[in-house]
Structures are given as structure tokens and as C-alpha cells.
């Protein structure tokens, strides 16, 4: 792991985690919290749902944490044992050191996390960077992943450099720029004020990951033999949804590939779509 500082200040860290704690206080279902030791430091983990049911791991995106799955756990927890870790090096309560995406660190992290939780086989749903991590793990250990849901997935087609440059400019424009950027990422969909305010807080007080997400190779993607869902929005300003869909269809004919009209990087009602995919036979 690098010794890269992810929070801009102690006060910023406290502010971000303070909102996180308030979200946990209003968690819609009973849950447990614990810390799990891995080769890459401690991982903060939320568990909810049915303890005796098959396991589902939810992986959030960059500059985020497990709190962003709050709206989906009630639906998914009815039939799954839901495990939601904070990804190390992101804006949560896990190890704050950040690893390079070109290293094996995040596959190793999931190996250790799954071993500690006794997960011989698991369904994985990932959003954006979390989808990339899910694919990397599933390519390395296809026998351990029963189903793989990829939402606004990074790493299939190149990121849009035009948005990266615009995002840098907007971040220099204060509160207005941060709100404008968040609405662009959301594809113009309505965003609750509390979600908008938390997103802006993280952008202000957290050092975003600047590393370009590496593309998975054809060989890696071809190893995804389990049922796969790729769901992206056609208005995604960060990723080329059309190229991502075309590449995955070509390499994985068995995958379900969906590009939704009028939707951006942030997808609506994710829990319902993930749940339907997981229940398919």
C-alpha cells in the first residue's frame, strides 16, 4: 500500500465520517458492524439481511463508502446475507492508505476479506470502481463468484478524458462547481439534498483518486464464466457506456448487457435490478 493521504485534514475526515455515522443511525434494517484484518490493513464491514442466506457483497465506487448502499439494503436483505465493506483508501472507515490499481492489492484484499468471513462462494455487485474490483477478483477466482452484477463499470472501455478535465475545472469553482459536477454524474436525475450535500463534502475534504482505472484484458474478461450483468446509463459522462457494452457482448455472449436511456453514471433503483438478476435461474 502507498502512504498516500486520502483525507485532506483531520477535521475533514471527522466531518465525512460524522455524516457516515448519522446515516448508520438511520439504517433501514438491523445490521452489525465489525473490523476485519487483511494484508492491506483493517476493513470496516457492515452486515445485514438474512444470516443463513447466500452471501452478497456490495462494492461501492471511488470517493465513496458503504453508506451509499443504504437505499438498496432493504430490498436485497430480504433474501441475501448482505456484506458491505468500505474499500481501503476511499472515503470510509477502512485502512486509509491507498494502493495502486495496477498492483494485485485489491484482489488480495478481497481474498483476505472473503476468507475471514468464511465465504467459499459469493455473489458480487459493484458500482463503478467497485465493479472493476469485482471483475478483477472474479477473473482471478471464477469458481468463488456465483453471480456478478456490474453497474456503471469502470475498466471495460476507456474513461472519458474530456470529463476528467472538466471535473478539475469545476472543482475550482467552489460549491457551485461541485454541485454542477454531481448533477452531471447523476445524469440530471433528481438527487436528494442530503445526498448532494454529502457528495460535495467528500469532494471538498477527500483527495480523489487520480489514477486512471486500468482496462481488463480480453483474457481476464473471458474468465468471467459465471452469470454476468452489465448495466450502464447512456448519459454517463465518465465512462463510454456504448463501447463498454459492445466489448462485453463480444467477449461474453452469455452476459446480460443493458444500456438505459436518459440515465447517467448514477443508476436508479439499483437494489431492484440487482435483486432481479440475482434471482434469475
TrEMBL record:
Entry GO terms, CC: membrane
Organism name: Ornatilinea apprima
Protein name (record): AB hydrolase-1 domain-containing protein
Pfam families: Abhydrolase_6
InterPro entries in UniProt: AB_hydrolase_1 (IPR000073), AB_hydrolase_fold (IPR029058), AB_hydrolase_sf (IPR050266)
Domain AB hydrolase-1, chain residue ranges per copy: 56-267
Amino acid at each position: 500500500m502507498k502512504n498516500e493521504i486520502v483525507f485532506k485534514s483531520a477535521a475533514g475526515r471527522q466531518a465525512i465520517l460524522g455524516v457516515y455515522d448519522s446515516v448508520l443511525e438511520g439504517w433501514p434494517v438491523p445490521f452489525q458492524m465489525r473490523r476485519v484484518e487483511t494484508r492491506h490493513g483493517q476493513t470496516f464491514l457492515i452486515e445485514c439481511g438474512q444470516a443463513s442466506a447466500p452471501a452478497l457483497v456490495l462494492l461501492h465506487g471511488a470517493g465513496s463508502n458503504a453508506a451509499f448502499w443504504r437505499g438498496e439494503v432493504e430490498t436485497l436483505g430480504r433474501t441475501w446475507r448482505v456484506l458491505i465493506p468500505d474499500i481501503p483508501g476511499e472515503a470510509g472507515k477502512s485502512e486509509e492508505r491507498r494502493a495502486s490499481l495496477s498492483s494485485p492489492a485489491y484482489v488480495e484484499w478481497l481474498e483476505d476479506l472473503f476468507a475471514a468471513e468464511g465465504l467459499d462462494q459469493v455473489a458480487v455487485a459493484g458500482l463503478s470502481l467497485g465493479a472493476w474490483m469485482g471483475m478483477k477478483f472474479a477473473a482471478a477466482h471464477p469458481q468463488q463468484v456465483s453471480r456478478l452484477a456490474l453497474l456503471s463499470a469502470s475498466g471495460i472501455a476507456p474513461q472519458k478524458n474530456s470529463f476528467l478535465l472538466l471535473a478539475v475545472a469545476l472543482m475550482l469553482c467552489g460549491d457551485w462547481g461541485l454541485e454542477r459536477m454531481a448533477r452531471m454524474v447523476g445524469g440530471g436525475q433528481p438527487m436528494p439534498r442530503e445526498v448532494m450535500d454529502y457528495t460535495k463534502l467528500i469532494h471538498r475534504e477527500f483527495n480523489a483518486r487520480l489514477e486512471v482505472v486500468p482496462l481488463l484484458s480480453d483474457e481476464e474478461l473471458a474468465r468471467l464464466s459465471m452469470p454476468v450483468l452489465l448495466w450502464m446509463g447512456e448519459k454517463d459522462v465518465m465512462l463510454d457506456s456504448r463501447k463498454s457494452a459492445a466489448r462485453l457482448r463480444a467477449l461474453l455472449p452469455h452476459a446480460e448487457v443493458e444500456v438505459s436511456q436518459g440515465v447517467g453514471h448514477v443508476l436508479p433503483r439499483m437494489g431492484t435490478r440487482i435483486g432481479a438478476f440475482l434471482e434469475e435461474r
